[in-house]
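Q: What changes when adenosine-5'-diphosphate is included in the input?
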Amino acid sequence: MFSRLFFAVFFLFVTVTCGFWLHGTTGAWVAVTGVLTALLLTDYERGHRLEVWLRQGDPRAEVRLTGFWAELVDRIRRGYKTRDQLALQHQERLQDFLSAIQASPNGVLLLDEEGRIEWCNQTAAAHMGLHEQRDLGQHIVNLVRDPAFTRYVAQEDYSNEVIIEGRSHSLAQRLKLQVQLHAYGENKKLLLTRDVTARAQADQMRRDFVANVSHEIRTPLTVLAGFVETLQSLPLSPEEQQKYLDLMAVQANRMQGLVSDLLTLSQLEGSPPPPLNESVDLKPLMAQVRSDALALSALQGDGEKPVHNLTFNLPEQLHIGGSQAEIHSAVSNLVTNAVRYTPVGGKIDAVWEVDAEGQAQFSVKDNGVGIAAEHLPRLSERFYRVDRSRSRESGGTGLGLAIAKHIAQRHGGSFQIESELGVGSRFSLVFPNTRVKLEALPTSRQAPLLAAEASA
Ligand code: ADP
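A: The predicted holo structure follows.
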């Protein structure tokens, strides 16, 4: 810049001196005017070239300029470059930000002052049945037609959230959404949606559970209270009194059984998974289960001898890593059920097997009443019974299969049911090979060690 100024002043000085020397003052003025005009025209022509270059809008385009003008072009180029870099950085940041919001498990919607959708992430679109692009600019209340939501948007107090029904594409699943508006910017709104279906289901299950437990306890309690009143108010003979006391004992036992199963369930839910290194010897465990089953079977007859044909098979030296009490409870529930739901003279086989992959399976097969296919998916739900009165008559609580399934899963295994109405059932507990220990491999993997048979 200074060299250009110096050059212009030097050139002016030389020209003016020459002009003055040749023609005096007039010559000097002519020289000044000529030099300034030449400088102006030169700058105008260069400025024009710069303007054409700028209009092109491409900072990389060639432009033939020198000196001060070339430096100006260079600086403008650098300015463009910095601006483009900043724009790129902002774009990347915006993309990151949008990707993060897209990845959110919660729905995010931006609404303008009028409540029209400006932007929404995929989750919000899925929650509310919207189209991410097509529905932009639409009023949210026109698209989400839920009276609770419309009232919520209209009230303009968004301190609390509202629960509405979402629009899941699968009809089988009804979404429950927690929705809340937050004001931001100038009268704009941020709408957040959260899927609370699982929480709502858990709440419903809790309510159902409490209602079921209350119902189960209330029934024997009412019967007991009735008997107590009868004993208190009627002059009964000692035989009659004994009869009532026996009936009261049945109800008390039923309540005891229910409370004990409820405690078992709550212990299962509240405790860590059973350790792998605690080895359960199945031999004494199955001996106990067998003797209880024989006694229960006998009670269905004259009480003297079992009325079912029961067999128990157990491979030599089979141990399961896990909880002795839990395995006993699961196995015993299945065997007891088989005895309770198999008519007199029926056949029941309780078998432990180890398959080729090393998994251990305990299965109880009976040729009892069997279960219709429509009940099978819900059979291991708490308090689910096929025949309520039969279950109660035989001392059932409706929790046995739920406990067995829970125990199998806590041991990393699974619970399986196969049944056919009028033909019989097969209930199985499968334990993963990581929990199976065969201390000495037998020649035949399934040797009938506990051969307990009892014929009707
Ligand atoms: P419960 O105490 O009523 O027996 P469970 O949870 O043990 O409760 O069993 C749930 C239901 O499954 C029973 O009410 C019964 O209808 C059915 N069930 C269980 N085991 C058998 C079986 N071996 N044969 C037929 N039905 C069975």
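Observations recorded in class: The longest strand covers residues 176-184.
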